[in-house]
């Protein structure tokens, strides 16, 4: 029996994939993402991490791009290429984990509010609206100031402040699924809350959550860069945000050292664009209402 | 002089992703002025496509062959300007589903006047409203302020606005209650007779067509399979499809349609009982009582029909009996014991009493296979034994044979009747003793209705399964129920055996209901 189920799931995945490959933008985004992720994973294997240490920097300060240092060097003589390469690891790591946290909270709150209704819904939605109206950046800054510095804090600060919109989205979708008669049938069959949510609501809501995740990653990466730029990140780690902060602090502009500003900035742009392209493409595939007549 | 409407070799094909689909093929029809023609058929037989082709209202993907002659002029080759002039002035349409065909943000008077203004006439809305027996003041109402029947009359007034010679009515009464349906049909028949309009009426319900039309055409798979005077088509159908359609709408009081043997009704012990059941809804406008003190009893192995119009509280009663909605007052007893209120107790209760919903398409999770849907109850209750064998057994009981072939099938690959059988199989898998069926055949095609009803009867005979059937259709009650309870505005106005209630009704409301049922025997 299970083999039939798996067969069907495989077919569903392959048809989703076929639909996805028709979207050129999404495909480009996916390729870019793949390359960036592979490079980030390979960084410790193909490069030497000692180059990141200020005391062991080999080059001269503020050197423009050359054959030896492709992206030039920073104010301490470290290779900007190396910094950017290693910075992508932190940006991706924080972007992804913060997104997982944010979407998990959002899905939990959204499904709970829609399924139980009544007071639970009113209370949860009140909290959600509170987080929606509060400027999330200010809240994140406050959180990361109070908590000890580190990756965990940044993840927490971004995750805890950005779940509200996914909660509302998931709640709306859950409400529309719960109104379908097959939910009533499941209840009459004797199914409890766990059964209704696990077997019927979540499978119907998950595609939407998945799309939402890819779009949230882009926001989380920008948020990480913002917080690091403001000096709230982990000072011992190189990230794109902290590179931009260093460039700003040590006068890269007055040195006309464009090579220190452009790589991390473009890195953020490229990765955010790639995630958004993939997210939009997935959205059109998984949400047939957006497909329209093309 | 050429006839009002003549179709010659009409064929309509739709271009879809999966190639061309033929909706209508080789149809020849003639309608003279002042004639009424009923077009009967099941969903997907092409009857709506045929009607829309008369005014060229088909979507862009449609290709039309043959000729559609309106007063001798071919609509298919007509220029755009000429077509605009002909639409509504020569022929108009009463669209299906009045709820959605009216603009919700404009007063109905303006909507009636719209076609008149477009065709350069002077609006005479009050006169039109008078013709459909509505007070002129209703012109200032918005659609949501009107009842279903009133909205349908507005649609008729709209269709008559430009004095057309031909009116096409597409399922004009489908969503309406019997009493309202009778009123709307009355208005339509009177107007056609008074003004000498040609009428093409489309319906899946032969009895509705029989009570308004002179001639009948029965369609199947895009072809007209039988055509002739309404009386003879219904009294002596020659095509098997017409016979199936005629049999699907039982005539109250006709012993031929009674499927229950009188001696089959035996003494039974009470299974489920409601005493003084009362259900209130708390809404924004205060408390609304949907059910106001209902006493109802269903014996073991008994089929009881709960009959009433929409809004009479019959569905709420069923929800309360199933323990889905706690009663405000009164009690529900199953085998003499109060309905449990704990979730564990209710779960046990659900093994005994199961629900079959109206629309099987939405009652099945579209992502679950037939196997998963039927096994759902078994898994919830952790029923011991071989799951696959139990599922196969339930499917076989619901007459889906061979059951193994249906295991991996998804709901959208099944027909409506098969889907309803899957829902029934899912209920049967738990071995219940009572089935609550909420309009079990209302959304099914005529030819499969009889099969599903026969299935319910056979389950009663073989498994001793009792059933509470909620319906607005008195013919259905006549055909399979032992007892009938008539509900009106939250109160049971009358209950008793089928013969007693339907042949010799004692309450005024039951009499009105019975009088409103369209009859195939004029």
UniProtKB/TrEMBL annotation, chain A:
GO terms for biological process: transmembrane transport. GO terms for cellular component: plasma membrane. InterPro entries: BP-dependent_transpt_permease (IPR050366), MetI-like (IPR000515), MetI-like_sf (IPR035906), OppC_N (IPR025966). It is a multi-pass membrane protein. It is found in: Cell membrane. Keywords: Cell membrane, Membrane, Transmembrane, Transmembrane helix, Transport. The keyword RNA-binding does not apply. Residues 88-279 form the ABC transmembrane type-1 domain. Signal peptide: none annotated. The chain crosses the membrane at residues 27-46, 90-111, 123-144, 150-170, 205-230, 257-282. Pfam families: BPD_transp_1, OppC_N. Belongs to the binding-protein-dependent transport system permease family. This is ABC transporter permease. It comes from Umezawaea endophytica.
From TrEMBL, chain B:
InterPro entries: AAA+_ATPase, ABC_Ni/Peptide_Import, ABC_transporter-like_ATP-bd, ABC_transporter-like_CS, Oligopep_ABC_C, P-loop_NTPase. One of its GO terms (molecular function) is ATP hydrolysis activity. Its main location: membrane. It is a peripheral membrane protein. Pfam families: ABC_tran (PF00005), oligo_HPY (PF08352). It is found in: Cell membrane. Signal peptide: none annotated. GO terms for cellular component: plasma membrane. Residues 7-246, 272-514 form the ABC transporter domain. CDD domains: ABC_NikE_OppD_transporters (cd03257). GO terms for biological process: peptide transport. Keywords: ATP-binding, Cell membrane, Membrane, Nucleotide-binding, Transport. NCBIfam families: PRK10419.1. Belongs to the ABC transporter superfamily. PANTHER family: DIPEPTIDE TRANSPORT ATP-BINDING PROTEIN DPPD (PTHR43297:SF2), OLIGOPEPTIDE TRANSPORT ATP-BINDING PROTEIN APPD (PTHR43297). This is ABC transporter ATP-binding protein. It comes from Umezawaea endophytica. The lineage of its organism: Bacteria, Bacillati, Actinomycetota, Actinomycetes, Pseudonocardiales.
């Amino acid at each position: 029996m299970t083999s039939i189920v798996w067969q069907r799931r495989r077919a569903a995945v392959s048809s989703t994939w076929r639909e996805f490959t028709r979207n050129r933008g999404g495909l480009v985004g996916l390729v870019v993402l793949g390359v960036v992720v592979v490079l980030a994973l390979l960084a410790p294997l193909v490069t030497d991490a000692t180059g990141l240490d200020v005391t062991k920097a080999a080059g001269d300060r503020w050197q423009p791009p050359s054959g030896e240092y492709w992206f030039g060097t920073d104010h301490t003589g470290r290779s900007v290429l190396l910094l950017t390469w290693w910075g992508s690891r932190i940006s991706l790591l924080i972007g992804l984990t913060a997104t997982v946290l944010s979407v998990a909270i959002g899905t939990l709150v959204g499904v709970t509010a829609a399924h139980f209704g009544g007071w639970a819904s009113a209370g949860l939605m009140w909290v959600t609206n509170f987080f929606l109206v509060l400027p999330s950046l200010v809240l994140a800054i406050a959180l990361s100031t109070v908590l000890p510095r580190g990756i965990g804090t940044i993840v927490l600060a971004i995750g805890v402040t950005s779940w509200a919109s996914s909660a509302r989205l998931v709640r709306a979708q859950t409400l529309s699924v719960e109104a379908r008669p097959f939910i009533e049938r499941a209840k009459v069959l004797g199914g409890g809350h766990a059964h209704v949510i696990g077997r019927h609501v979540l499978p119907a809501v998950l595609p939407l959550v998945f799309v939402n995740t890819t779009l949230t990653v882009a926001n989380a990466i920008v948020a990480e860069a913002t917080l690091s730029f403001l000096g709230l990140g982990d000072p011992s780690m190189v990230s794109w945000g902290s590179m931009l902060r260093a460039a700003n602090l040590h006068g890269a502009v007055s040195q006309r050292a464009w090579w220190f500003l452009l790589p991390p900035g473009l890195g953020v742009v490229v990765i955010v664009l790639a995630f958004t392209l993939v997210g939009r493409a997935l959205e059109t595939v998984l949400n047939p209402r957006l497909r329209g007549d093309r | 002089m050429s006839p009002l409407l003549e179709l010659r070799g009409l064929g309509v094909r739709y271009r879809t992703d999966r190639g061309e689909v033929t909706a209508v093929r080789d149809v020849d029809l003639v309608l003279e002025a002042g004639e009424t023609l009923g077009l009967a058929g099941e969903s997907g037989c092409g009857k709506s496509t045929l009607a829309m082709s008369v005014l060229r209202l088909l979507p862009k993907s449609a290709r039309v062959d043959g000729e559609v002659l309106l007063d001798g002029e071919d609509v298919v080759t007509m220029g755009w300007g000429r077509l605009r002039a002909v639409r509504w002035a020569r022929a108009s349409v009463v669209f299906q589903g009045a709820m959605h065909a009216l603009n919700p943000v404009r007063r109905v008077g303006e909507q009636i006047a719209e076609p008149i203004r477009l065709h350069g006439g002077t609006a005479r809305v009050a006169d039109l409203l008078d013709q459909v027996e509505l007070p002129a003041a209703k012109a200032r109402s918005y659609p949501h302020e009107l009842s279903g029947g009133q909205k349908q009359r507005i649609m008729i007034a709209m269709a008559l606005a430009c004095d057309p010679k031909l009116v096409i009515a597409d399922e004009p009464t489908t969503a309406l209650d019997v009493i309202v349906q009778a009123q709307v049909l009355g208005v339509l028949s009177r107007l056609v007779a008074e003004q000498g309009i040609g009428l093409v009426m489309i319906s899946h319900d032969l009895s509705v067509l029989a009570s308004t039309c002179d001639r009948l055409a029965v369609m199947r798979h895009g072809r007209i399979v039988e055509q002739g005077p309404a009386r003879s088509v219904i009294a002596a159908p020659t095509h098997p499809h017409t016979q199936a359609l005629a049999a699907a709408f039982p005539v109250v009081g006709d012993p031929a349609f009674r499927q229950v043997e009188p001696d089959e009704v035996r003494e039974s012990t009470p299974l489920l009982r409601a005493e003084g059941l009362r259900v209130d809804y708390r809404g924004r406008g205060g408390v609304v009582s949907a059910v106001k003190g209902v006493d109802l009893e269903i014996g073991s192995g008994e089929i009881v029909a709960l009959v009433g119009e929409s809004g009479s509280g019959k569905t709420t009663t069923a929800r309360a009996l199933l323990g889905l909605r706690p009663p405000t007052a009164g009690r529900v007893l199953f085998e003499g014991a109060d309905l449990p209120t704990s979730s564990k107790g209710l779960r046990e209760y659900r093994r005994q009493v199961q629900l079959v919903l109206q629309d099987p398409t939405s009652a099945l999770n579209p992502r679950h296979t037939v196997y998963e849907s039927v096994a759902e109850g078994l898994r919830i209750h952790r029923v011991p034994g071989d799951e696959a064998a139990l599922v196969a057994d339930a499917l076989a009981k619901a007459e889906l044979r061979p059951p193994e072939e249906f295991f991996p099938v998804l709901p959208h690959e099944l027909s409506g009747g098969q889907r309803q059988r899957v829902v029934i199989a899912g209920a049967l898998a738990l071995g219940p003793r009572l089935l609550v069926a909420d309009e079990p055949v209302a959304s099914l095609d005529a030819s499969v209705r009889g099969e599903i009803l026969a299935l319910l009867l056979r389950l009663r005979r073989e498994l001793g399964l009792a059933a509470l059937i909620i319906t607005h259709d008195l013919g259905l009650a006549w055909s399979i129920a032992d007892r009938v309870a008539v509900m009106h505005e939250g109160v049971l106005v009358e209950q008793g055996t089928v013969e007693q209630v339907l042949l010799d009704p004692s309450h005024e409301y039951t009499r009105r209901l019975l009088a409103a049922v369209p009859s195939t025997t004029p």
